[in-house]
Amino acid sequence: MVENAKKICPILAEGQNPCEEIIAPRCGIVIFGASGDLSFKKIIPSLYELYRKELSDGLYILGCSRTKYSDEEFREHTRVAIREYAEYETEKADTFLRSLYYIAGDYADQQFFRKIKLRAEELDKQYGVNRNRVFYMSVPPSLYETVASNLGEMNMVDDGSVKLVIEKPFGSDLQSARNLDQAIHKYFAESQIYRIDHYLGKDTVQNILIFRFANSIFEPVWNRNYIDHVQITIAEELGVESRGGYYDKSGALRDMFQNHMLQILALVAMEPPTSFASEHIRDEKAKLLRAIRPFDLDNLDDQLVRGQYAAGQVQGKKVKGYIEEEKVSKNSKTETYVAAKLFIDNWRWANVPFYMRTGKRLRGKDTEVAVTFRQIPHSMFKVSGLEMSGNVLVMQIQPEEGISLSFQAKRPGAKMCISTLWMDFKYKNVFQAEMPEAYQRLLLDCMTGDQTLFNRQDSVELAWQLLDPVLEKWQQSSDGPYIYPVGSESFPQADRLIEKDGRCWRKINED
Ligand code: BG6
Prior knowledge:
- It contains 14 helices and 17 strands.
- The protein is an alpha/beta fold.
- It starts with a helix and ends in a 12-residue tail after the last helix.
- It is globular, with a radius of gyration of 24 Å.
- It is about 35% helix and about 20% strand.
């Protein structure tokens, strides 16, 4: 319906640009696990993009890994990666690649870290970096502690401007998250620790805050008096791909729910922070997570169900089931799908259900937050005999990023016919630009020292506190997950969770 955003949004008029670019100061990035998938697919292409867009004042990258590469080999692998995962501009790519260096070694060997220290000191001088160093742990979680303590023992962290980036999962339950935190805090202050949840780097996820707190019309109705229920969906079309080894020990609850899903929930439901300052936002998120009602373990199926994909056909092609995936145990009970109903026990949200689901190998890729408002209290339009549905506000996180609001309208003609229509805003139509990769924003924030979009330890622990009892219950149970065929929209037990409340899941990619 929005044909020309400039008409309704004067701030987008030509020549007006209310945004200031953030430019990162000179920085040295040391990547552990530099020869791995995440490094080549996300981290380095994102750093290249920051360089290409001139959002960095200058940087060098020191790749560290077990794989033996020379500087040249590392650069050539990186060239291939940025051709595939970034916007390749030959001249920029050439100069960027010249700032890449590499050291191979064993993480348990202090000699490896000694070499890294010396090399980083030389590079700091060469690139004019004033101790603004980022250590990025893109290694398996079992190595987090080893890397952090070796950095500590080598006296590489004694300066507040040194940052440590940690990929999720941060622990695999409450106790392990606490142990890891203690081990890291032995050397790093909380202000130096950047726990990544890449969903928080997505523009559309950040926009939840702008939408709620930079508009005056939504917040007054953002509560139990006007909202019937909320649905949060992260549906994936892909399966576990090459990550079976990691995933089989993790599952959807740990891999997606503990972090991405609960973080989105926190942004949707938290109270307005006093300011956009990092600690104010993170305080409100933690308060919200603390208010989630614990699951009733005796009636778990009414609140949380798990599923696992089984082999089937998608568009005429045979697709493997989860247990046939590489490095997955043949009798694995790991869940690839979780659906849950949560309540937030506070004044704003009393008795408003939040239905949340995430799964792999579903009918399509779709991440969205859908807020359904209450039905009108009394209908004077008895015409169609149909119940008029409540307005729905959909924040489409990906892939068709945008925001839509449904409303009822009269159809043209003499008859009194009412239809549900949608007001649609699509990022790509209005801004005519690709959405930036989440890692670009997160790396930029890290280089500038802004922790707003990173998880604080209390949020990590609150999320585990909520989920630990469920994980224990599953562990003790002889039952496994329900089975759903690849390409499914849903399955009966997940449907039951919402349908018994007289509601239904939105369709994947429903408009
Ligand atoms: C990761 C999970 O954190 O997020 C993956 O480990 C998942 O299992 C991925 O596929 C989804 O991210 P995105 O950005 O593709 O929605």
